[in-house]
Amino acid sequence: MRSLDLLDPAPPAGSSGLGLGQPPGAATDWTVPQDWSCYTAEEHAVWDLLFARQQQALAGRAVADFGRGLDLLRLSHPGIPDFDELNERLFARTGWTVVAVPGLVPDDIFFDHLRKRRFPAGNFIRRRSQIDYLEEPDVFHDVFGHVPLLSNPDMAEAMQLLGERGLEALAAGVLPILSRLYWYTVEFGLSRAPGGHAIYGAGIVSSYGESLFALESPVPPLLPFDLRTVLATPYRSDAFQERYFVVEDLREVIDAVGDAGLIALCRAAADAERASAR
Questions:
Q1: In what order do the strands lie in the sheet with 190-193?
Q2: Cα 199 from Cα 45, distance rounded (Å)
Q3: Which residues, in sequence order, are CB contacts of 123 under 8 Å at separation 6+?
Q4: Residues 6+ apart with CB under 8 A from 88
Q5: What are residue 149's phi and psi, to 5 degrees?
């Protein structure tokens, strides 16, 4: 799941997403019961179709840690994972859990979940007619895309740090700038790998088309990861990415999120954009 700012890459400075109305039946942290028993046979079949297709597409394309973490999703039954069973396995590895939410969540709620090692996941799945694209993240994107690497200690730490930094950026009015770091790493990041590059971003690993495009198309440049450049680079949420940033390894993501001057760099990037717009 993403917060409002992550789906809208150009909100007003300081926008918190608090205009979203709390859904009926949701707790104050916007969580809802997953109600796994209410999923239909067709919904489970869509998950199984997506899972099989992406597993095949990612062979040799995803970072090795993603493949190892994918075992978490092979539970005692086919179809959409039951979060209760999934969380027993995930928590034992890194202390993270997945919580169900009904859709997009406000920014403060989203980052507060992350800092507490809780990942908000949509409790709905796309229709078969939407198999190739759904702008609002569903349970397949959230669970297949994010959970395997939440079992990796480095990414588990980076995501918790991002929760803390997200709240700091929200208070400082620079969340739209910090969101670029999340976007170009957690959602659409590439890493160096033996013989080339590998995918680790959830937005790529959960997309059949983009998992091929990111590594095989000659169009988008694959740029060395540089924190200042990332913070100065807007993104699109409605199309394949125009560029990708490549880290040396997943530890580089932690280093970027843990940079003591990160919020100051976000302020500087925001100031530079305001100055150039005059």
A1: 196-199, 190-193, 244-247, 222-224
A2: 26
A3: 32, 33, 34, 35, 100, 101, 102, 139
A4: none
A5: -85, -15
Angle between helix axes 175-182 and 262-277 (nearest 10 degrees) is 110
At residue 9, the 3 state secondary structure works out as coil
Count of residues for the chain? 278
pLDDT, tens only, 86-138: 999 999 999 999 999 999 999 999 999 999 999 999 999 999 999 887 778 89
Q: DSSP letter for 103, please.
A: S
User: Does an H or E element contain 170, and which?
Assistant: helix 153-172
CA nearest neighbour of 182 among 195, 171, 194, 169:
169
Which of 147, 144, 151, 150 lies closest to 54 in space, CA to CA? 144
Mean pLDDT over all residues of the chain?
A: 91
At 245-263, the pLDDT tens digits run: 999 999 999 999 999 999 9
Q: Which residues contact 111 (CB under 8 A, 6 or more apart)?
A: 3, 162, 163, 164, 165, 166, 167, 170
Identify the structural domains of the chain with CATH numbers, from first to last. 4-277 (1.10.800.10)
Q: Residue 227 and residue 265: Cα distance in Å, rounded?
A: 9
Burial class of residue 153 (count of CB atoms within 10 Å of its CB; 0-12, 13-18, 19+) = middle
Q: List, by residue number, the catalytic residues.
A: 141, 146, 187, 206
Radius of gyration of the chain (CA): 18
**For residues 15 and 4, what is the distance between their CA atoms, to the nearest angstrom?**
9
| Per-residue confidence (pLDDT) for residue 20, from 0 to 100 | 65
pLDDT recorded at residue 67: 92
Closest by alpha carbon to 159, among 103, 120, 117, 97? 117
Could you tell me how far CA 156 lies from the centroid of its own chain?
A: 12
